[in-house]
Amino acid sequence: MARRFFVGGNWKMNGDQALVETLTTGLNSLDEGLLASRDLVVAPPFPYLTAVRTALNKHIGVAAQNLHAKASGAFTGEVSVGMLKDLDIKWAVIGHSERRSLFAEADETVAEKVGAALAGGIEAIACIGETLAEREADKTFEVLFRQMKHIAQAVSSEAAWDHVVVAYEPVWAIGTGKVATPEQAEEVHVALRKWLSEHVSAAVAAKVRIIYGGSVNAKNCGDLAKIADIDGFLVGGASLKVDDFKTICSAPRA
Ligand SMILES: O=C(CO)COP(=O)(O)O
Q1: pTM of the model
Q2: 3-state class of 71 per DSSP?
Q3: Is the ipTM here above 0.85?
Q4: Which CDD domains match (predicted)?
């Protein structure tokens, strides 16, 4: 069965109430057939989650950009899975490279968060990606497979993989304007699927969505969306521009 195309918009620490209004109005005007056939998800900063959830058409999902693995307690500044569920937030971006590099999230922490999200009924957009130095040192696959291994250990069953989207975001392509070529992204996506087939199962490898993130924009999304192994996008900067993001959400497959 064809994997359902997924487009996520990660606002990062950007936006305000005016953007909430502009973006939600714009996305609500997308074609109903498109909304029914794809997963479109936006990840605003925590303070805007409820406003975005309330304003958006129910066919469009809302994601947190992070969560804490513990259910509650003395964790100042953190947000639990239960709180997200309470606000009707069904998705979370986990292990984004900015969390890993700027907030010292180790593979183990990312895995714990993925496990907590799945256990609590939140769909995980689990991010992996190599830095430029790692790519240049020929360590791309070593790094990606290590990150995947930790994530895979947190997914308790084949069925649980239905609630995981893997986002391949090469760090050198994030916010740099240097998009991976369709061939570079395809090479990695194919390798990740092979890894899943060998280390999890052929069924999981066939069904799990592997999306690409890193300088995706309204111009380059068309070529990337044609690649069979690219099941969608995680978009940063361009997700803040309503017309560009709508173009990306609508990018035709082959
Ligand atoms: O990090 C990203 C999405 O999570 C990608 O960001 P850019 O699209 O701004 O490169």
Answers
A1: 0.98
A2: coil
A3: yes
A4: TIM
Q: What distance in Å separates the CA atoms of residue 197 and residue 174, rounded to the nearest whole number?
A: 28
User: Residue 254's pLDDT band (boundaries 50, 70, 90)?
Assistant: confident
Does ligand 1 come within 6 angstroms of the Cβ of 235? yes
Most informative mutation of 11, 102, 216, 240 for ligand 1 (most atoms within 8 A of CB):
216
pLDDT in tens, 80-93: 999 999 999 999 99
How distant, in Å, are the alpha carbons of 61, 120, 154, 231 from that of 159?
21, 15, 13, 19
Q: Is 234 in the pocket of ligand 1 (CB under 6 A)?
A: yes
For 247, the token pair is: 């173009």
Amino acid at 231: D
Choose the CATH number for 6-249 among 3.40.50.2000, 1.20.120.1630, 3.40.50.300, 3.20.20.70: 3.20.20.70
Q: Could you say which of 105, 130, 169, 189 is catalytic?
A: 169
